[in-house]
Amino acid sequence: MTVPPLSRRVVWPTAFDVLAIVVFIAIGRRSHDESGSVTGFLHSLWPFLVGAAVGWVIAAAATRDRPSFAPASLWPAGVIVWVSTVVVGMLLRVASGQGTALTFCIVASVATAVLLLGWRGVARLVSRTTT
Predict the structure, then answer these.
(1) pLDDT per residue over 79-92, tens digit each?
(2) CA distances (Å), 123 to each of 10, 47, 64, 103, in order?
(3) What is the pTM of this model?
(4) Relative orientation angle of helices 12-31 and 118-130, to the nearest 10 degrees
(5) Which among 53, 100, 127, 128 is placed 20 to 30 Å from 120, CA to CA?
(6) Cβ–Cβ contacts within 10 Å for residue 6, how many?
(7) pLDDT band, residue 3 (cuts 50/70/90)
């Protein structure tokens, strides 16, 4: 089994996860007419980025017995990163005095699932058709 280069295996999935979370925050802030402030954007963004990072660490630890860490996989890495992004993100929002209304938790869960798992699903389909 050939292990893909580091860029394909780790760097690109990291970039796609960060981009997905940035898009989620940008859409949310825009829909609430809060899109003008860079500091406000970063204030909304950091809890979810930390949550995703925690998810990456958990996913890497959970798959340490495999030949190579596959962060672009839907299962288990994608699901772990998604759940961690939402759970840790919400906990950090509470700790930092940001809102966590039930409807926001639901919307955030669905939106981040679509974005974080969606790109992984597309990548899987593309890799199947090109191999």
Answers:
(1) 999 999 999 999 99
(2) 14, 26, 22, 30
(3) 0.91
(4) 140
(5) 100
(6) 9
(7) low
Residue 110 confidence (pLDDT): 98
What b/e sequence results for 62-81 when a residue is b if at least 16 CB atoms lie within 10 Å of its CB, and e otherwise?
A: ebeeeeebbbbbbeebbbbb
Question: Helix 79-95 vs helix 38-62: angle between axes, to the nearest 10 degrees?
Answer: 130
| Per-residue model confidence (pLDDT) at position 98 | 94
Question: How far apart, in whole angstroms, are the C-alpha atoms of residue 90 and residue 100?
Answer: 6
Q: What is the spatial distance between Cα 26 and Cα 61, in angstroms, rounded to a whole number?
A: 31
| Dist. CA 81–CA 74, nearest whole Å | 10
Q: Which residues contact 78 (CB under 8 A, 6 or more apart)?
A: 72, 116, 117, 120
Query: Residue type for 111, please?
Result: A
The CB density around residue 123, as the number of other CB atoms within 10 Å, is 17
| Positive or negative torsion for Cα 90, 94, 95, 98 | positive
Which residue matches tokens 């955030």? 108
